Amino acid sequence: DDKLLSEPLSHPDFFNVKELFTLKDLFDARVHLGHKKGCRHRFMEPYIFGCRLDQDIIDLEQTMQHLQLALNFTAHIAYRKGIILFISRKRQFCHLVERTAQACGEYAHTRYWQGGLLTNAHIQFGAGVRLPDLIVFLSSLNNVFQPHVAIRDAAKMNIPTVGVVDTNCNPSLITYPIPGNDDSPSAVELYCKLFRMTIIRAKDKRRQSEAVEELR
Amino acid sequence: QMLRLIYTTTAVQRKNVGASGPAKYTEAFIKKQIEEFNLGKRHLANMMGEDPETFTQEDIDRAIAYLFPSGLFDKQARPMMKHPSEIFPEQRKIQWGEDGRPFHFLFYTGKQSYYSLMHETYEKLLNVEKYQDHLIAQDLPLQKEKRNLAGSRWLTKIELEEMLLEKLSDDDYSRFVQLLQKLSDLPCSDIEEKYIQKFSKEVPVQMEKVVIEPLQYDERGVAFSTSEGRRKTARATAVVYDNGTGKMTVNGIDILHYFPVLQDREQLLFPFQFLGRIGKHDTVCTVSGGGRSAQAGAIRLACAKALRSFVTGKEVEFMRQAGLLTVDPRVKERKKPGQEGARRKFTWKKR
């Protein structure tokens, strides 16, 4: 059992998430397109490649690295049977995100966030609730263009976060930020596909390893 | 060993009952209640001398009402013996498994049934839109069978709460109804008809069509018609005969003797005078209850209703507009405590 858990940690890319996406895929899905220069957040400046006709372009080389780290991390969490919660407050993609979560066998929250869901969980849900072990933000802003409350709450409850940060978002409290577009349907579909594939891959790997252990 | 009484303060004995929240019924508790109920049912059947196998809930209710007669007005306060599933409200069971993972994928939203319902409904909507696009791409016409909108209504908020076992807010409910409305308004929504019907209910026909009785004929061949009327506490039945001379009898007594006051007789004659049929009909009435005016008003209504069978539809409408066919709803208002009568207050004394 110890070996099951410690073996993946020795490899830098145990689940081989690099092969799931290429730079061209990201470009075709319009992940590099950011918001206008006026909406730019100060902390996103390191991740921006440049600005063309007032529109910010996100550096896809950096996005590739961040995406690889984030997907690797989610795969490890899924391998260790953690609870993953997908959050997105974009109305267009609410249904898509819920479907993705259902397909992975994980959880989603694309609706109005009630104040004490993470911080007051024992009273809201009942004693003995298990909180999510990872929170994935497919859009880190809420409907009023302010940082989603769950970022701060997850940081308070020591829950690691993975989040797609656009040029108008604050990447500070997110543990594994992924600079990229969160408004185009093609980009969000790509992210959903990538997360779904990593989680399913990690779970399959876990089942295989357990079967192998049992055979011994 | 003697047990000595230790004196404690009342503060220790007082328990904060409200702090534990609404009572939680475990599954084992409910099962035990169901077993006890079944045993009790059989005992009751034996007591009443009936067959324990075929003892229905109605028999139980009758037996309990016989064994424990109660004069309380509130039906819910009387002793009752019902199946535990009707007494203990349905509750949500524990939502997560042994390893802690919740069962439902929307568990962390807080309102999982409601949001999963919204999710499903939206999925149906997308399905219908996809089907519509499919038809448009093939240039096929979009059919629309007229759904009977007047005969059905959506579930109320309380019914939806019962269905989902979850509290809803008014906004949530209105949003759900809007989504359902949007789904049913699409042209090709017939595909998801079954799903929509889960949330719609038949509305019973509200307007009772007032049926005007046809004329009956007695042995002499004379047409007559019977009807009832009421006013305050008086109840009257009137039989109006055709080809008459305008004679009216009440409880076997002629109206001149029964109603000495002119006002009452005017009331009786009003329906006939309105239709211009004063000397044409004979009337035999019976009346009981009420006082002088109330009986007169009751007979008037009864005669007017009986005359509907003799008269055209237009004249019936005229009668209705004249107020001849409406039951007078005024009854004696009750006296309230702290007041002399229904409205009169006690004499106000300045000091």
**Assigned CATH architecture of the largest domain in chain B:** 2-Layer Sandwich
Shape of chain A: globular
Q: DSSP helix count of chain B?
A: 12
Mean pLDDT of chain B: 87
CATH class of chain A: Alpha Beta
Order the strands across the largest sheet of chain B as they lie in space.
3-4-5-8-6-7
- Please name the CATH topology of chain A: Rossmann fold
Which CATH architecture of chain A?
3-Layer(aba) Sandwich
As a percent range, the share of helical residues of chain A equals 40-55%
Radius of gyration of chain B: 34 Å
User: Strand percentage of chain A, roughly?
Assistant: 15-25%
Number-wise, the strands of chain B total 8
How many distinct domains of chain B?
A: 3
Q: Residue ranges of chain A: pLDDT <50 for 5 or more in a row?
A: none
Oligomer: heterodimer
Number of strands of chain A: 8
Query: Could you tell me how far the N terminus lies from the C terminus of chain B, measured between alpha carbons in angstroms?
Result: 71 Å
Poorly predicted regions of chain B: none
Quickly give the structural class of chain B: alpha+beta
Protein name (chain B): Small ribosomal subunit protein uS9m
InterPro entries (chain B): Ribosomal_Su5_D2-typ_SF, Ribosomal_uS9, Ribosomal_uS9_CS, Ribsml_uS5_D2-typ_fold_subgr
Subcellular location (chain B): Mitochondrion
Family (chain B): Belongs to the universal ribosomal protein uS9 family.
